[in-house]
Structures are given as C-alpha cells and as structure tokens.
Amino acid sequence: MSTKTDSWGSRVGLILAMAGNAVGLGNFLRFPVQAVQNGGGAFIIPYLVCFLVMGIPLLFIEWSTGRYGGKYGNHSTPYILDTMAKGRIWKYIGVFGIFTNIAVAAYYCYIESWTMSYVYHSIVGTFNGMSQADVAGFFNSYVDVAHSTTGIPYEAVVFYVICLLLNTYILSKGLGGIEKVAKIGMPLLILFGVILAVRGLTLGTSGASDIFPEANAWDGLNFLWTPQFDSLSNPKVWLAAAGQIFFTLSVGMGTIHCYAAYLKERDDIALNAVSAGFMNEFVEVVLGSLIVIPIAAGYLGLDWVIQNAGFGMAFQTMPYLFQQWGDVIAIFAGVFWFGLLFFAGITSSLAMGTPWMGFMRDEFNWSKNKGAWSFGLLALTMGLPTVVFYNEGLFDQYDYWAGTVSLVVFAFLETILFSYIFGIKKGWSEINKGADIKLPGIYKYVILIVTPALLGWVLISSIPDWIDKVKDSDTHNKEWFANTYYAENFDASGNTKGKVVEVSPQHVKLAFDNEKKVFDKATGEVIKVPFTDYKVYNFDADKNQQVTVKMDQVVSPKDEIATGDFTNNTLYKFMGRMLLLALFLFISLVVFFAYKKRVKEGRATI
C-alpha cells in the first residue's frame, strides 16, 4: 500500500480548492447562455431542483468514495472504485476519472489561454474604437492559427503552450501549489465578479442608444429571475438543467474523488461538500447571472441577447461593451472580466491534473514533478489538434464526448456502485462519518432512488443524440474528401429553401425565411417573429473551388452549390473521436499494467 506523501494544509484551503474545481468557465460562460436559451426564468426552477436532487447527492457520493479509497492509499478513481466492489470491471470504469480530466484539460486550457490573451489585449487597448463586428472578427482571427493579432507567429498556439506550462508548473508543487492558487484566485475571482455585477445592477437604461433605444439592463435580470412554472412539464428544459449541473459542480469527472482521497478517515465531508457546492452556486447563480446578460441587455437590448446568446459572447461582445465605459475604465473592466475567467479556469484545470498524478504516484511511485510534466505532455499532445483545427469542429468533439457524455456515463455508474453494490447503508454511514452537521434522512432515499433515476433518464434520453453525432447527421457534406459541396440546412427543420441573391465564382449568398425570438413585454413571453435571413458561402480558388449555382436560383438543403477539391469537417470530427478513443485505451492499458504490478507485489489477486 502506498503512503500519503501529500496533504491539504487547512480546511479553508481544501474548501477553496474544491470550490475552485467546481467554479469554472461554465459558471460565467455557460450558465447564463443556458438560462437564456431555455426561457430565462423557466430554467431556474428545474436547475435548482436538479442541484438539490442530483448535484448535492453526487457531491456526497464523490466526497465519501474519495475519502474511503484514500484510507487504502488510493488517490484516483480506478482503485478508489476497486476498493468498493469485487470484480475487475470497476477499475476500468474508474478509467473515466482519469480520461475525462486529461481530455477536458486538453481543450479547457485553450479557452483558458484566450483569457490570458484578452487580458493582454485589454491592457494595451487593442479593442479601443472597435465596432461590435470588429470585436467579433478579432476573435475569429485569433482562433485561426494562420493569423496573428500581436505579430507573434501562431499566436493562439503560443498562448496555449504558455497556459499549459503555467498549469504544469503549479501542479508540480503538489497540493500545496494548488491550495495557494485557490486561496489567491478564489477571493480575486469573487472580488472581480462583484465589481462587474454591481455595474450590471446599476446600468439600468443608461446604455440605451439610437440603435437600441429600448436597451435596459433590468430587462435582462427580470427575464432571468421571473420563474415560469410551465417549465416543470418541459423535458427539454429539465435535460438542459441537469446537464448544467454536471458542468457547474465538476461531478462525474474524478477530481472530487482525488481531492477527497487526501482527507483523514474522520475528516468531515458532509459540511465540506455542502460548503463547496453552495459557494459554487453563489458564484454561478448570483454573480454569473449579474454580469453578461444584464450588461449586454443594457446596451444591446434583451431581444438581441435572446437572439445571440452563445458561448462566444464573453469574447465577441463583452470587450465592445466595456468600450462604452471609456478607454480607461474599459482597461480595468477587461482585466476584471478576463482575469475573473482566468482564475475560474485555472482553479479547475489544476484539479484535472491531480487524478493522473495520484494514480502514477500510487502505482508506479512517480514523483510530483514527473507526474505533473507527464500530464502536461499528454494534455499538449491531445490539445494541439483542438487549437489547430478549432474551426473544423475538432474542439467541439472533445467538448461533447469528454466534457458531456463521459460525465453522465461515469456519474450514473458510480451512483449505481455506491447505492446498490457498495450499499446505501454503508454509503450513508460513510457520508456521515465525522460530519459536523446532521444530514436530513431524506437524502438517503434521494441517493438511492431519485438521483440514479434522474441520471438514468438523462443517459437514455441522450442516446439518440450520440448516434447522430457519430453519423454526422448535422451535415450533408459527409465525405472526408469530395469534389462537390452541398448546401447545408437553413434552419432546424431542414425543409426551408434559399434563393441566390449574390453570386460570383467563389462566393454565394442565399436568402431564406427564418424566425427569431423576441421578448413580448405585454405577455412576458418569448415569441417568434418571421424575418429574412441570409447564409453566405465563400470558396477557395486555389483549391479549384467554384460556385455552380446562378442568380435567383432556388436552392434546397443537399443541393450542389460548388465543385472543386474539398476536405470536409467530418474528417476532423472523426479524428477527434479517434484521439479520444486512443486516450481512453491508453489509460486502460496503464491501469492494466498497474493491476499486473499489484498482483506481482501481492497487493491484488488474480
């Protein structure tokens, strides 16, 4: 049995590190967008219910299983799960707890590197005088590795490598390094968030303009915080709310198990889990809802927010909005906003390195330094393709399969293990061991019945979407290499047709009927309004790509619109899936060798 060579310095440091693990980019980038896209206040009730019946129980499960495995000298999920049940399969289920962290860190650090770059650009005044379209275009140029916004060749790659090096260096210092970052980063994150939230609360109608005369920050807040009880019968909203819980609490990843494995057998986990969970909810629900949406609504109007809510708002819109406060204040606002996102990101990405490091130390006696730099190398190997092929969709494949599907699968399986194989009686006793608070007995039955049922529903209802992703059902250009390019769908139905309104040898613009969402203040509901929309395709003459449609021609989805030499995004999406599969198999092989080593040393039986 390995001995513990690392430990937490204080309870405050542990809670801040755990909260930092949970408080990530999703709190500020994903939560407000999910809320807007799912009806604003209609999202809040399902979200809070999912937090109470799925999020909190999963925190209890992961904290207690981590501490339980830790007393046997195991600090990552393969052998933490193996200590809880007989059978070889569980150590390989535990592979998810290492795989997910490496795969997510690979692309998560890329987003984290954007925040570093944007802090720099905010300080030097890059965004001064830029229009909203210019700021959006800046982001598009940044993620294209062939362009540079600073003069540094392959700028996106350089910032990404710097970000990974910083993460790896801190990880090489062990839990002490992580704890120091959490003690500095979490208070600064909350401070920056409060400053920006106050601005969001006090903006009111002062940001209205001739272009957006009805802009009002309070509209954004009212939209987010007016409950819609009819959402309780909408499965789509429930599914979105359940999905957000995984992102916001970092459950189903294996990081919580790893952190908790360094606790003593009678250290409190019940209060710690609740404290970390509610700190995360404060940051997400309070600060996360008071910055992006109110400020955007205060300058651009609620209708614009509803129509354009997306992950990219933080980078493609916020720098423009900060410019409305004046050149000097815009610098501080940019540093606060992107600094906040950086600290939210790094406290999470550091946690992602600990399962691999813990496993390699336990099984192969690797030092912290060796474990950290090997993690950095794995993340770099997996992550560089997401940087280079970001626009081709490889990044999205990682986010979907590693950052979504893997979490749900692992959370469901670990809940079944805890409740029905390890046993709820032993599990409940483990949760309450050393607890400083008395947990409501109802949670015993929530963990036993409600949580696995909800997770099972999320899992089963997601399967059709998994199949569509593997089949690349979202595109008509399925061949990796083709000499014909087809029109994609103009709307979700796939039945709408477009009309050619502009055409040249390498350019075509199609007009089609679409609907946009607007907020009806009289009824307090989001309604759909018809309008004419456009889709533009640009082709490359160097690849012999040439438009084949003519002016005024009516085009249906899957109609040929160009010929030439095409390398379609399906190639890169397949590449992403294969890289993830290779990583999972590689970690499974490492676990297998560790098992063989344990058998040889007499620490495991055949």
Automatic annotation (TrEMBL):
What is this protein's record name? Sodium:calcium symporter
Query: Which SUPFAM superfamilies does the entry mention?
Result: SNF-like
Task: Spell out where the chain crosses the membrane.
Answer: 12-29, 41-61, 89-108, 152-172, 184-202, 237-262, 282-302, 328-351, 372-390, 402-422, 442-460, 574-595
The organism's place on the tree of life at top rank = Bacteria
Q: Give the Pfam families listed for this entry.
A: SNF (PF00209)
Is Membrane one of the keywords UniProt gives this record? yes
- The main location is membrane
Kindly give the InterPro entries that the UniProt entry links to this protein: Na/ntran_symport, SNS_sf
**Mind listing the UniProt keywords for this protein, alphabetically?**
Membrane, Transmembrane, Transmembrane helix, Transport
Membrane topology term: Multi-pass membrane protein
**Compartments reported by the entry:** Membrane
What species is this protein from? Flavobacterium okayamense
